Amino acid sequence: MKITVIGAGNMGSAFVKQLVRAGHQVSVTARDAARAALVAANHPGARAVATAGAAADADAVVLATGYADATSALLAVGDLQGKVVIDITNPLTPDYMGLTLGYDTSAAEEIAKAVPGAEVVKGFNTVFAQVLAEGADFGNGQKVSVFVASDSTRAKQTATALAQSMGFEVVDAGGLRNARYLEPLAGLNIYLGYGAGLGTAIAPTWIHKA
């Protein structure tokens, strides 16, 4: 698939690494063009592109910015009508120990309102950048779970195919409103990683008996 990654931070860089490794055609763009160019250079096969029009040829767009920058970042890459947008954001407080949204909405739902032509799917928001960069296999027979939630069947299928191509297990988390559950789950994971000192080599998963 042709994938455009918006953001050149830890998550954006990890996505570029794993998507290139999985054989996708990857473009990366960011507010800081030099940083996007560095990410592309560090992962041969990826290319840095200008922000304007960055989504034009993409089969999917990965939104790898902070939630506060999400809407402006999406609006800057061009027409998103009919585009699959994978929202990985979490609406975190400045100290990362709480959420600024919840109960009656979510970051994903607010983003979907801001770009109504896009097909938004929540995914990867419960995965630390360090885990994403290292890959899906924990080395003990377990794989990291990616939870996906969307009102668009196509968007959910696209996010699922991408996650599976990178080796992740996928859990169908229902409609986009269920991002209201996934974002607090990410908040708990962040607390455990940083607040409780468990580190970033952790991820929530879903286990069921056969």
How would you describe the overall organization of this protein?
- The chain is an alpha/beta fold.
- It is built from 7 helices and 8 strands, in the order βαβαββαβαβαβαβα.
- It has an 8-stranded mixed β-sheet with strand order 3-2-1-4-5-6-7-8, sandwiched between helices.
- Helix 3 (67-76) links the parallel strand 4 and strand 5 (84-87).
- The longest helix has 17 residues, at 179-195.
- The mean pLDDT is 95.
Notable features of this structure?
about 35% helix; Rossmann fold; about 210 residues; eight-stranded mixed β-sheet; single chain; alpha/beta
CATH topology: Rossmann fold
Compute the number of structural domains.
Answer: 1
Helix amount: 25-40%
CATH architecture heading: 3-Layer(aba) Sandwich
Total number of beta strands: 8
Per DSSP, the total helix count is 7
Stretches with pLDDT under 50, minimum 5 residues? none
- Write down the overall geometry: globular
Strand order of the largest sheet: 3-2-1-4-5-6-7-8
Quick one: CATH class? Alpha Beta
Secondary-structure element string: EHEHEEHEHEHEHEH
User: What is the chains' assembly state?
Assistant: single chain
Into which percentage range does the β-strand content fall? 15-25%
Helical/strand content category: alpha/beta
Q: How many strands, what sense, and barrel or not for the largest sheet?
A: 8 strands, mixed
Radius of gyration: 16 Å
User: What is the terminal separation in angstroms?
Assistant: 33 Å
- The mean pLDDT is 95
Name the CATH superfamily classification.
NAD(P)-binding Rossmann-like Domain
